[in-house]
Design goal:
Length: 268
């Protein structure tokens, strides 16, 4: 078995991976645009933060502000996640001046004061928090705010052709994922060392930030409801013009048989 930190959707499309973790948008995008995938279960809620200058007090204060993104697409988390957050706050993404620049570095522009918000997640959020150039603050935290912090955001996704041909291997992989989740302590430093020593997630130099990211969310995978999560995210993305499929359409690419079996099989 080989482990990679490459984005799951592109890795599937390139034939370089069979199973992996993905944000909801990655799953939705794969259903609509390929490659063919199956969602096998959830793992944990999300780790996304939205940072803004001190002059922006809340998400609603982004109205009339300018935010640089590299694309306004479903697969682009810089845009699609902020669009969801805006919708949930009762705003229209059109109220924000999203500047599309394909070759932009949104983080660099934010730190230079040229963009009024930036998306950060996992180790990237941890790194931004301690970056001395960051004079802003968090205006949205998926870790802290309900209902986001109680909603599945990291889905376990598999290549549909591989899954149909290898159901036993898929269950073994899911069992390994869930057994590992159950075994991890609150401080996942040992797991972080194994991963970063292999050069994953930026390697040993990024270990401090990877550790904070690894400790950011609970891994009580039995507590979260995949269908409920999908039905939560879909309206925000549909209302933003990013998603065509209904929740019922997307659920056709969900197979929770293994998840349900393991929920019973694996003891806490």
């Amino acid at each position: 078995m080989q482990i990679t930190d490459a984005a799951t959707g592109p890795a599937f499309a390139a034939g370089n991976s069979n199973i992996g973790f993905a944000f909801p948008q990655a799953f939705f995008n794969a259903v609509e645009n390929g490659p063919k995938v199956v969602l096998l279960g959830g793992l944990h809620p999300g780790c996304v933060e939205i940072w803004a200058p001190q002059s922006v007090g809340s998400v609603k204060d982004l109205k009339g502000r300018s935010v640089t993104v590299t694309a306004k697409t479903l697969a682009n988390l810089q845009y699609s996640f902020l669009a969801m957050v805006l919708r949930q706050a009762g705003m229209d993404p059109k109220d924000v001046n999203f500047v599309v620049q394909a070759d932009a570095d949104p983080l660099k522009l934010y730190l230079e004061g040229k963009s009024d918000a930036v998306f950060a997640s996992a180790a990237g959020a941890a790194a931004l928090k301690v970056n001395p150039a960051n004079k802003g603050h968090i205006i949205y935290s998926q870790v802290m705010e309900e209902p986001w912090k109680s909603t599945d955001c990291c889905f376990v996704m598999t290549s549909e052709p591989w899954f149909r041909a290898n159901p036993i291997a898929a269950k073994r992989a899911m069992r390994a994922i869930y057994r590992t989740a159950d075994a991890l302590p609150a401080d996942r430093i040992d797991a972080v060392k194994i991963a970063t020593d292999k050069g994953l997630f930026g390697g040993a130099a990024a270990a401090v930030n990877v550790r904070e990211a690894a400790n950011m969310v609970p891994l009580d995978w039995r507590s979260y409801d995949v269908e409920k999560a999908i039905r939560f995210y879909v309206p925000f993305l549909a209302d933003s013009g990013l998603l065509k499929s209904s929740a019922d359409d997307l659920l056709k690419s969900v197979d929770l048989k293994i998840y349900k079996e393991l929920s019973t099989e694996l003891k806490r």
